[in-house]
Amino acid sequence: NITLGSLLDDQQWHSVLIEHFNNQVNFTVDKHTHHFHTKGEYNYLDLDYELSFGGIPVPGKSGTLSRRNFHGCFENIYYNEVNIIDLARRHKSQIYFVGNMSFSCLEPQVVPVTFLSSSSYLALPGTSGQDEVFINFQFRTWNKEGLLLSSKLRQASGGFLLYLSDGKVKVSLH
């Protein structure tokens, strides 16, 4: 098992390339490549009768995963220089697909907010008694300094800050 990539659930396109030559394999995710040799004397890749993209169609097939099938978009799927998506779009007999699919990929709706002055901010009332907190956002700025997120803690005199300092994101818990 080889693992590459991180933060792949960011709604951005990511590329995957697998190259197999004799027993040399190059596995690339977003321009990061891991080169390795297969064990044994494998000079060719002996695939099962089908190659599945997005999930495993038949329970019990090799590579059974307890995870759900992929939910997202693929583009530019090529197998030995054959455009798989084009074959599927034209309903060619060597390709079949199962489930709900469309030959488009909707871009996520982005709703930005711009803070026009240094005194602008958004405030959300806090909730107490939560074991976990998940916060995510994207930002862009031309400034190297600035407060991104802050909160006071209810049961203590402290809080946390998420801020830009010298062009880097920092977190401070106190």
From TrEMBL:
UniProt xrefs under SUPFAM superfamilies: Concanavalin A-like lectins/glucanases
Domain Laminin G span(s) in chain numbering: 1-105
Pfam families with a match to the protein in the record: Laminin_G_2
Protein name from the UniProt record: Contactin-associated protein-like 3
Organism taxonomic ancestry: Eukaryota, Metazoa, Chordata, Craniata, Vertebrata
